[in-house]
Amino acid sequence: MERVLGGDPARIFVIGHPRGLGLHFSIDGCRLLDHDDRALQYLADDIPRLNGDGTHAVCEAVSLLAVREALRSEFG
Fold first, then answer.
1. How far is residue 35's CA from residue 37's CA, in Å, rounded to a whole number?
2. Is 25 helix (H, G, I), strand (E, B) or coil?
3. Phi and psi of 31, rounded to 5°?
4. How far from the centroid of its chain's Cα atoms is residue 26's Cα?
């Protein structure tokens, strides 16, 4: 992951469809907290909690590198 993230591994850019809505880009304020070969956990803009009231700023995403490797393993 550090190889891909380059010089500032703490700063990431996130592209997604939060809560199934339209395309959303998170460019500022995203900071990498933890990662493994499959997923990233990061701080982002506050989003509504799935359960209960309030918001939180921690998100998790599947790495596109993991998706690419899974497709390569499955389909060659």
1. 7
2. strand
3. -130, 130
4. 10
